[in-house]
Specification:
There is one protein chain. The protein is of the alpha/beta class. The chain has one domain: Rossmann fold (3-Layer(aba) Sandwich). It contains four helices and twelve strands, in the order E-H-E-H-E-E-E-E-H-E-H-E-E-E-E-E. The strands form three sheets. A seven-stranded mixed β-sheet has the order 2-1-3-7-8-11-12, sandwiched between helices. Strand 11 and strand 12 form a beta hairpin. It starts with 6 loop residues before the first strand and ends in an 8-residue tail after the last strand.
Length: 191
């Protein structure tokens, strides 16, 4: 009989406190606030920066004595056709040109089960295939997903928050491994 690990899903969202309004970074903290509200019922947690991201993973894995099967990273980000793009872990910007930060993310790879899935819920990161492939490699070859359209949230007040990854419109889901990326037609194509 093979030994099976207990598994869990983790939802780490860029803290709304790490988004500032200014000429250098005019991002909307409401998106992060709504995304965090949406994932709170699933145990979603805010992250301040890459150090906080890694610490939260270490703490959850050791306290719950479980490995991660699905990791959702929700944040601001962007991607353009032609591979340029980034996403945020709190105040830390993760881009394909920043090997130091990607290496740091790779320190959590032993906490992911074989066949784990990592979802980057940041606008248009499905275009940033170099970034998604590098993340997959750093995390031990797991599938890393991005979306080619804008990720949006809708706050329905008392009735909760909805999240749209854009695949219902013109957007597509992109899934990457270290050596290849595939672009799907929309929701549910790879699961």
């Amino acid at each position: 009989m093979a030994f099976e690990y207990k598994t869990m899903n983790m939802y780490l969202i860029q803290s709304p406190d790490t988004v500032w309004q200014g000429s250098q970074d005019p991002l909307d903290p409401g998106y992060n606030r709504d995304l965090l509200k949406y994932y709170r019922k699933k145990g979603g947690q805010p992250v301040q920066d890459i150090g906080d991201f890694i610490k939260r993973i270490y703490v959850e894995v050791t306290q719950r004595k479980a490995l991660i099967k699905k990791l959702v990273i929700g944040s601001h980000g962007t991607g353009e056709p032609g591979n340029a793009g980034y996403f945020r872990l709190g105040t830390t910007i993760i881009s394909s040109g920043d090997d130091k930060e990607i290496h740091l993310i790779g320190t959590i790879k032993n906490f992911l089960v074989r066949g784990a899935e990592v979802y980057i819920l940041a606008c248009r990161t499905g275009h940033a295939t170099d970034l998604l492939r590098k993340l997959s490699f750093a995390l031990g070859g797991v599938r890393v997903y991005g979306y080619t359209d804008f990720i949006t949230t809708t706050n329905y007040g008392f009735f909760g928050v909805g999240v749209d990854d854009g695949t219902g419109d013109e957007g597509k889901e992109t899934v990457c491994w270290p050596s290849i990326c595939l672009n799907g037609a929309g929701r549910g194509g790879w699961r």
